[in-house]
């Protein structure tokens, strides 16, 4: 009798298996409920497992028989974030010579665990990392798996206590400088849950990125605009921020002010193991400080340009050599027509000038070019004339201005050379403010202006009259 039942059951299972499609075997819900791992399986566990298998088969049979699929029969998943349990791999991986074990209190017993980082051997050192420790409270092993972009030199960031329960969470850095969409990275938090180091998934991962995030639709031929993101750990708490304004980035430079307004968030760990960001705060950040915003914060903490550089005329020499004699000298000579004469960097160059009564800037425009000689020329009789020359071997090249604005100072535009070697242009805006642009080299023969800031100019003829609006 039992043999006949077994045969019919096998035939039924085989027939049903032929009808099962991949979508019928999708998980019933995205949230994984963690359970303690069993050290061994007893016969009772095996019997219980068999019963569960038969129950699942019965549900699948309902799905392939033309009635509702199993995922429609199951309760709708809630808003919980899905956790990925680590796979127990990498026990034979080795720690990198320059990796540093982390020491933190994972289980909250007051004793710090030592977490070692074992790197998966790959050709490009970009494999996974096994996190492995022995818990001081139980003596049991705990492990996790991380993908950090590299297995070289793994070390932990300061630990946090994101759920306030007295134990600490491990924080590692995913470095995106070479592999990701931004120049920076983001933190990965690991929480000890039922003997596993489980990655805590943030509810909005984009808010945790450190680096430059391109503003959609901002790309031009010579620059794009980026918001500046950051994260930091302070007093065991994880924080992150993103600039309110976006800033021009091009020619391997970013034109952001010294201090700028940011939206900021504090991150906590909920009961389901997800990282949640708190309410948006307003902060003012600079490279070395962070403070609260004022009553009416605006993104106007602009690094104001220094005073304008001076110029010399015919026959006067500009000496741009340093104490070691590295650099060049330049002067304007006139036989029949005026010429720019440059000596330095192993060359003596004479460049004819087609400028009435030329004037030579006393500061090198290093923001445009510094790997050789570079100079700014204007005219004593026509201040709207502005020319930039850069050295290319044994000749001086007149740079061609390209992009959105002209180099010439006309139609209300102001263009000048600053004391610190920047070439700036200011264009009047409709509201009385001025849009400030800075010129950079975009090819060996071309320069383009990138938007820098909005400023107020009380007196266009006074170089000290530029203020933040």
From TrEMBL:
<feature type="transmembrane region" description="Helical">
    <location>
        <begin position="44"/>
        <end position="64"/>
    </location>
</feature>
<keyword id="KW-1133">Transmembrane helix</keyword>
<keyword id="KW-0472">Membrane</keyword>
<keyword id="KW-0812">Transmembrane</keyword>
<protein>
    <recommendedName>
        <fullName>VCBS repeat-containing protein</fullName>
    </recommendedName>
</protein>
């Amino acid at each position: 009798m039992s043999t006949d039942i077994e045969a019919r059951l096998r035939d039924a299972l085989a027939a049903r298996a032929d009808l099962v499609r991949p979508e019928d075997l999708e998980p019933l819900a995205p949230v994984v409920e963690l359970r303690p791992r069993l050290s061994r399986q007893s016969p009772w566990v095996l019997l219980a497992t068999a019963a569960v298998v038969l129950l699942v088969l019965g549900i699948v049979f309902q799905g392939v028989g033309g009635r509702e699929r199993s995922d429609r029969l199951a309760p709708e998943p809630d808003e919980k974030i899905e956790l990925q349990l680590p796979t127990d791999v990498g026990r034979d991986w080795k720690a990198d010579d320059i990796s540093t074990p982390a020491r933190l209190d994972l289980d909250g017993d007051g004793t710090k665990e030592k977490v070692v980082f074992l790197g998966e051997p790959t050709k490009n050192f970009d494999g996974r990392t096994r996190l492995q420790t022995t818990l001081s409270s139980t003596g049991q092993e705990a492990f996790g798996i991380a993908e950090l972009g590299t297995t070289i030199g793994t070390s932990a960031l300061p630990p946090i206590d994101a759920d306030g329960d007295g134990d600490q969470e491990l924080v590692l850095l995913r470095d995106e400088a070479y592999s990701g969409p931004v120049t920076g990275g983001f933190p990965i938090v690991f929480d000890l849950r039922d003997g596993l180091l489980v990655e805590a998934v943030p509810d909005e991962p984009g808010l945790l990125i450190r680096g430059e995030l391109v503003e959609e639709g901002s790309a031009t031929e010579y620059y794009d605009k980026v918001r500046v993101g950051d994260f930091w750990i302070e007093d065991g708490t994880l924080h992150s921020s993103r600039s309110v304004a976006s800033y021009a980035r091009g020619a391997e430079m970013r034109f952001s002010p010294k201090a700028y307004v940011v939206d900021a968030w504090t991150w906590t760990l909920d009961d389901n193991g997800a990282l949640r960001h708190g309410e948006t705060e307003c902060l003012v950040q600079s490279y070395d400080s962070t403070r609260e915003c004022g009553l009416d914060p605006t993104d106007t903490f602009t690094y104001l340009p220094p005073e304008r550089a001076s110029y010399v005329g015919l026959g006067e020499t500009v000496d741009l050599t340093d104490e070691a004699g590295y650099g060049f000298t330049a002067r304007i000579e006139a036989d029949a027509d005026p010429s720019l004469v440059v000596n330095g960097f192993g060359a003596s160059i004479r460049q004819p000038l087609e400028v009435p009564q030329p004037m030579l800037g006393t500061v090198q425009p290093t923001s445009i070019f510094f790997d050789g000689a570079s100079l700014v020329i204007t005219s004593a009789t026509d201040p709207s004339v502005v020319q930039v020359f850069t050295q290319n071997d044994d000749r001086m090249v007149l740079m061609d201005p390209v992009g959105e604005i002209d180099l010439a100072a006309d139609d209300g535009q102001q263009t000048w050379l600053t004391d610190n070697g920047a070439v700036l242009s200011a264009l009047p805006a409709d509201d009385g403010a001025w849009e400030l642009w800075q010129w950079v080299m975009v090819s060996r023969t071309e320069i383009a202006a990138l938007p820098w800031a909005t400023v107020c100019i009380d007196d266009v003829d006074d170089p000290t009259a530029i203020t933040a609006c």
